[in-house]
Amino acid sequence: MRSILIAISLIALAACTSETDTSIDEDATASDAGGSITAEQAPEESTSGQQETAADAAAPARTEETRDREAPHLESAFAGQTRAPIPADSTDWSIETVARGLEHPWAIEFLPDGAVLVTERPGRLRVVGADGSVSEPVEGVPAVDNRNQGGLLDVAIAPDFESTRTLFLSFSEPHDDGTNNTALARARLSEDRTALEDVEVIFSQQPAVESTGHYGSRIVFQDEDTLWLTMGDRQGHPVRRNAQDPTNHIGTVVRLSFDGSVPQDNPFVGHEENRPEIWSYGHRNIQAAARDAQGQLWTVEHGPRGGDELNRPEPGKNYGWPTISYGIEYRGGDVYEGRTEAEGMEQPVYFWDPVIAPSGMDFYDGEAFAAWQGDLFVGGLRSQLVSRLVIEDARVVGEEWLEIGSRVRDVKTGPDGAIYLVTDQPEGQVLRIVPGGAEAEG
């Protein structure tokens, strides 16, 4: 039933120009006829009702986003690429507060016993207990450049953590000359969880540049031996043009073995010039990434003014930035030539305009929300919401907004089936979305 209802909504969406239609008539129904119907009137009223129902079916599908686009002249490449209809099925939910008092938390990762590791962007790693207690900072964290968007960023425990206690941290790596880069460190968490041991930087983005933005920096495990690390274009002209040059790491996703070496089946292994670590390139700033149940990597990257993108990065492919985009410059005006398509460049699966400012995402595989099974949940900073995306056959067929009211930096399914969030604030929190319609706590 869910697939049928969504398909009907998509047909309606395809019949309209969803990129430019920003007003939704929520009252376009045939339910306002009042009074009783006599036998003589019945045939005529019945015919009229059928006509109204047909008109309703042709009306634009209801979407969460109703604001004007920042870039209405940049038309989507296919129906459903933006402003997917609100799903017909959902469920009641509410927010609970798990922990408070965290300074700009950036990432959350569950330990086997249900406690969580939380990074704070200024450069601290903490353990949050199931009771909401927040530990002292874990010792041994690498030095970070915490200016602006930089700092201690993602954290991920290795698949064999229970036996090895291995974890990975991404961060902005500082250098004495004022430059910095995205880096990945491997370490072991001590038995008492108070310190990192055997810390080793296993990857450093090249080149290092003088910038304090667009580090990307999500870690996703592909399997028991390899991982993906997302990066950004390091913000602004002209450095962002390097995202179209696979001889460097700017604006790329890299794929690494757990020791930092290059897997021999990476797409550019053996190439004379391209960096062998690269999985895909042409990205702007990927702060959300997750693997689906089939093992496919999905990412969401920040667009400029409009044009946040959902992608499925595949090996060796070019995702277009900054040559193509569905957004415009912050100051106004097209990004370079204002193109949305070019030969050899991939289209996004989905885009947002205006932006949600995405950060953190996870495919839901818990047991608390049956209606959400397999759906993708994407955090929003500027939008202060979580976007639920319903995906079928690698296309977004529905979008629902869960209003949180705080800048959502990371999203993770917990072992209890709740959806956990961290909020990017000076007094940040760990929150969880749970079943039920109660008012938010906190």
UniProtKB/TrEMBL annotation:
A Pfam family recorded for this sequence: GSDH
Biased composition (Basic and acidic residues): 62-73
InterPro entries according to UniProt: 6-blade_b-propeller_TolB-like (IPR011042), Glc/Sorbosone_DH (IPR012938), Quinoprot_gluc/sorb_DH_b-prop (IPR011041)
PANTHER family tied to this protein: ALDOSE SUGAR DEHYDROGENASE YLII (PTHR19328:SF75), HEDGEHOG-INTERACTING PROTEIN (PTHR19328)
UniProt feature, compositional bias: Low complexity: 52-61
Coiled coil spans: none
Ranges where the record places region Disordered: 25-90
Stretches assigned to the Glucose/Sorbosone dehydrogenase domain: 102-432
This protein's name: PQQ-dependent sugar dehydrogenase
